[in-house]
Amino acid sequence: MSVGPGPGRLGILWQLSSISGWGLYGVQVTRALLARGGPRPVLGLPPFRFHPSPLEAPLFAQLEAEAAALRERLGAARPGDRLDVDFPLLHALGEDLVPTHRAFEVTGRGDLGITFFVDPALDQAVVERARRYRAVVAGSTWNAVLLEAAGVANVRLVLQGVDATIFHPAPKARLFPGRFLVFSGGKLEFRKGQDIVVAAFREFHRRHPEALLIANWFNSWPKLIETMALSPHHPKAPILKEDGPDIEGWLGEQGLAPGSFRVLGEIPNALLGSVIRECDAALFPNRAEPGTNLVAMECLASGVPTILSANTGHLDFADSNLAFVLGDQGSVATPPFHRSTAGWGESKIEEIVDALERIFAHPERAAAVAGNAAARLAELAWPKQIERLLERLG
Prior knowledge:
Elements: E1 2-3, E2 9-13, H1 21-36, E3 40-43, H2 57-66, H3 68-76, E4 82-85, E5 89-93, E6 105-107, E7 112-115, H4 124-130, E8 135-138, H5 141-150, E9 155-157, E10 180-187, H6 194-207, E11 211-218, H7 222-226, E12 240-241, E13 244-245, H8 247-253, E14 261-263, H9 269-277, E15 281-284, H10 294-301, E16 306-309, E17 324-326, E18 329-330, E19 346-347, H11 349-361, H12 363-378, H13 382-391
Parallel strand pairs: 1-4, 2-3, 2-5, 4-6, 5-7, 7-8, 8-9, 10-11, 10-15, 11-14, 15-16, 16-17
Antiparallel strand pairs: 12-13, 18-19
Helix pairs in contact: 6-11, 10-12
């Protein structure tokens, strides 16, 4: 079956959201298309926890109404069905280039697949799936190199962008005078390394009781939270309560006193910039990142001295002129739900504490590095990156 007519339209086949990396990517694509006057975005799926501004809300409401025909057909599709549309589509591709809408085939005219994946074990099936698209857009150099090595010929590299209206250097409000704030953000799961953050911060706080951990951790998928039990530092996941994981209790189990941390939970992206800028350092000892780690990019763009593990997608910004790089990366045992962790990395607690000490002791030097990063990230504002993406449509 087909949906049409569709001249001057571009479909987005994942959910817009204010809290997830994929969701924010979709929001920024939509905004850029509206700002440039076309092609007209067609939102294939309803949004998830999306909070547009009052100015934007009517624009997105109109797009929701316009998407009704496509949504109706997607909703009626059954496993094995094939849906054809007469305009190009942007597909969200996860592990093994499997689309997130994998229950059925959706094909447009000259589609792009956009991919972020953490399992480097790719097989011939990946090459076959890649042929369905005009191009497969990788969100990190690491992903692009893996795809090319597997034999995918139509790989294009386009990094994520940052929202420069939110994430940029600006004065602090100084809400916690006399404290040294360390920011950590992202989904709560094993590969994000929050257990490493806690172990390193615990030692740093022992030396500097004025240190305060700002934990912007959340996760809507309990199964991913449970992967924290794989930690070599604290092999236990937070207890799941009705309102989410008990992160405060989990931190207490690991020896952090109540006054040494603030758990922020889920924050809409539009409110995150002021939180990040209040911090003196940002810490990302992630074991694996498929892309360039949007939250880390937002910290770099905000002019906050940022500590990055030198592995996987982080390698695009793991430059000592831009960040405090954790170069001593150990191997990571392959979890049961992955085939390989080649390229992943286990950061050393001592190296993290040393990086925090350098930022603490030499704030002027740290600010110079952070200034370099902010200037570099200003070149990656979302509108520029979306233009680079649209160029791949031909």
